[in-house]
Amino acid sequence: MLNGNKAPVVAVKTLIEFAAKSGSLDRKFTPSPSGQEGIEGHKRVTSNRPDNYQIELGLSIEYGGLVFRGRADGYSPDAHCLEEIKTFYGDVDLIPENHRDLHWAQAKCYGWMLCTQLECEYVNLALIYFNLSTQKEYRFEQCMSAQDLKLYGESLAEKYRQWQNNINQRMSQLDAWIEQLEFPYDNMHPSQRLMAEAVYKAAAMGRVVLAEAPTGTGKTLAGLFPAIKSMIRTPVNKVFYLTAKTTGKQLALENIKLIATDKTPLRALELTAQEKACLEPDKLCRGDSCIYALDFYTKLQPARKIAYDEPMLDKQKLKELALKFEICPFYLAMEMSRWADVVVADVNYYFDGTPLLLGLTKEFNWKPYLLIDESHNLIERGRQMYSAELSRSHLLSAKKNVPATIKKSLTRINKLWLDLIKSLPEESFSLIPVLPEKFGVALVEFTNDYIAFLQKNPEHPVQHTSAQEFFFSALNYQKVIDTLSEDFCIDMQNVRSKEEVLTLRNLIPADLLAERLIHAHCACFFSATLHPAHYYHNLLGLPDDAVHITVPSPFSSNQLIVNIADNLSTRFKDREAAIEPLCDIIRTQINNVKGNAIVFFSSYDFLQKTETRLREKLIDDDIKFVVQSRRMNEFDRQEFINQFSAHNNLLGLAVLGGAFSEGIDLSGDALKGVFIATLGLPQLNPITQHLNKVMQTKFQRGYEFTFIYPGIQKVIQAAGRVIRTTADTGYLWLLDERFQQKDIKKLLPHWWNLH
User: Fold this and answer.
1) Is 187-271+337-384+510-550 CATH 2.60.120.10?
2) Phi, psi of 319 (to 5 degrees)
3) Strand locations in 132-169, DSSP E?
4) How far apart (Å, rounded) are the C-alpha atoms in residues 21 and 156?
């Protein structure tokens, strides 16, 4: 952590948010100025002040071993008046009371600092609300004595000092605990040690490591243990364990509990999506609707104190605290993220557009260690996070629900959309070289009109219609269009159907991922499928000095019998003919080797056609089918998995790349074999065809980057369901002759003994 002996500096903003917030949560959409609009508004206000008016006045004060520091918006020596300027839209009388209290708290803290610095007996404080629409100032002023300001400021500072003392005490205990921390098992096997050493070296050198670590290497523990150990001798002061799968989060939490006992000074936090954490999903997230939002910030102070003493704030513990204090578990977790040492979360909490963990990292100058689990998924997740789409059906629906003042701008968007369609060829999919400037202008006009309307009508029911959904899509579209580069394309699908989808599509997320990665001290990207390394290095935006390691598999070739059906083709044109021989292979194998098995297909259509014939073939055999369907919810998916532990005669049918081809652990007798009836290649369509061209131009490996590498990655992940421990044995059937090709074989794990 390497903190040194300097007095900690606390921003006034941090002090106010910690000690002065009050009232309820109110998460309804309230139009507010952008950062740039706020800056322009401040300039407009201060431009009218006298020449000796001081802008951005730096102030600080020391209290209780802490230095509180910030910048007051302005100070007029002539009037001896300190001004705090806030920009807004709408009616000044509708600014919530708890927001006003927070603004006054900030002004009073600066007043306390100014009086101390100038040794004066009083100061005038002015709260200026500047309406960006009307350019009108609303001034609220009060004169306060230095003594009153001192009492007020010190009351807030004392709350923070006591909290900081708790932090300091725990951190000193944490340093000693980490120093004595030992690996939770008697031995670290060689593969695990190789990865753990690379993880620790990355922390020491501030580097990025790409670790290909097969199933069974204990890579979760090999990442977490050295990352935590590094916190006392390197700049690392936070560990963010990021994953794209819920199963990855659970495994990380289990390993943290393995490393840390109940009495540990280590603090770990699980961040969960709001819809999964919410205790009242049918209520609005505001104090007048939900009991858990009511007086949230008042309840937060005692809840925060108890929560801070909990070593593991997982979803269940947060729910218990939420019920005890009647406080929202999702926003309690958001608050506690400031104080956790290890945070387990989805990748979007760091890599998305405006993510929580990245924002806190920048605000507090943290030096986090990023552990990105199953990082092969980050390529596709990155593409999704950095893309934006507009649906014309949503636009047409929005037109029916909005007041007349907004409808005009939506009508204009629709007209321009129709003009754009007329310019496109007679095809259902079209690439668009450049969007017409008028279309972008119309989107901005709509979002401005919508904001202006809500400023005047904050409770209008339009917020609960498809208009609000289209509004947020338009905002996201405008945000993404500012990042457009050669790594994007613009396309329209379902042309001339009234259900067109206009997409700003990210194809190569590397640069945008790299922009976020640079704020971390170090990182380890790890997965069982990171081969070839140059593919992931290029698309994940890793720095040139990133280190690549390949961790040997702990499994031996005699644990897994791998067979290739060298006379079978599952290409699209050959699938009908492949069903009969494919079923024969499956029936022979499951009769020869008893136990559960899963067959992975390229599509639901292929699955369903094969299922019909398989049921006919196996009608006299003692086989129970369990089949993946298109619309399985989380409960259904768990039921699918649970059956493998309850039976030993199951034949599962699933789609490759879906919920069951990675991230599930079926060790021992739960799964004996896997059949993969596809090479896993992404579907050939206009989007992948264009991606192929882009990849060829940029990397000279178009077909490999677009089809082969993503396909084989899915195959290896699915095959990895069979052998989970060194005691497991089983079989794998690769049901396509293309697996015999030299270029394909060299991408398969070296420890497989191919027959």
Assistant:
1) no
2) -65, -40
3) 136-145
4) 11
Q: What pLDDT score was predicted for residue 91?
A: 82
CA distance 466 to 401: 7
The DSSP line for 67-101 is EEEEEEEEEETTTTEEEEEEEE-S-GGGS-HHHHH
Instruction: Decide: residue 712, CB within 10 A, 0-12 exposed, 13-18 middle, 19+ buried.
Output: buried
Residue 582 — very low, low, confident or very high, per pLDDT cuts 50/70/90? very high
Mean pLDDT across the stretch 76-94? 91
Cβ 174 vs Cβ 201: under 8 Å: no
- CA 403 to chain centroid, in Å, comes to 35
Q: Which pLDDT belongs to residue 5?
A: 60
Alpha-carbon torsion 177, 178, 182, 183, what sign? Answer: positive
Q: Do the beta carbons of residue 295 and residue 23 sit within 8 Å?
A: yes
Architecture of domain 9-161: Alpha-Beta Complex (3.90)
Position of tokens 């029916």? 400
The domain locations on the chain are: 9-161, 187-271+337-384+510-550, 388-506, 557-754
Q: What is the dihedral of CA 211, 215, 217, 222, to 10 degrees?
A: 50
pLDDT digits (tens, 9 = 90+) for 4-31: 567 789 999 999 999 999 999 988 766 6
Report which of 479, 487, 275, 477 is spatially closest to residue 379, judged by C-alpha positions. 487
Decide: 674 and 722 in contact? Cβ < 8 Å: yes
Q: Which amino acid is at 94?
A: L
Structure tokens at 573: 């044109």
Whether residue 532 is preceded by a cis peptide bond, meaning omega within 30 degrees of 0, is yes
- pLDDT higher than threshold 60 for residue 70: yes
CATH code reported for the domain at 388-506:
1.10.275.40
Please spell the DSSP secondary structure of 264-299, one letter per residue.
-S--EEE---HHHH-S-TTS-SBTTT-TTTTTHHHH
What is the structure's pLDDT at 733? 98
What are the φ and ψ backbone dihedral angles of 213, each rounded to 5 degrees?
-125, 110
Task: Decide the pairing of beta strands 501-506 and 388-391.
Answer: antiparallel
Rounded mean pLDDT, 326-353: 96
Phi, psi (rounded to 5 degrees) for 663 = 80, 5
User: Which residue type, as a one-letter code, is found at position 360?
Assistant: L
Are 656 and 600 within 8 A, CB to CB?
yes
DSSP-assigned states of every residue in 197-242: HHHHHHHHHT-EEEEE--TTS-HHHHHHHHHHHGGGTSS--EEEEE
Distance (Å, rounded) from C-alpha 660 to C-alpha 668?
17
Q: Is the pTM of this model over 0.85?
A: yes
d(CA 520, CA 208): 10
Structural fold of domain 557-754? Rossmann fold (3.40.50)
The pLDDT assigned to 23 comes to: 92
Q: What is the pLDDT of residue 1?
A: 57
Q: For tokens 């009836």, what's the residue? A: 677
Please name which of 584, 607, 596, 580 lies closest in space to residue 678, comparing C-alpha atoms: 607
CA-CA-CA-CA torsion for 246, 251, 257, 258, nearest 10 degrees?
180
Largest CA distance in the chain: 98
Task: Note whether 739 and 749 are within 8 A (CB).
Answer: no
Residue 178 and residue 516 in contact, taking contact as beta carbons nearer than 8 Å: no
Round to whole Å and give the CA distance between 652 and 755. Answer: 24
410-455, pLDDT tens digit by residue?
999 999 999 999 999 988 899 999 989 999 999 999 998 898 888 7
| Share of residues in the chain with pLDDT > 90 (%) | 84
Q: From CA 755, how far away is CA 753, in angstroms rounded? A: 6
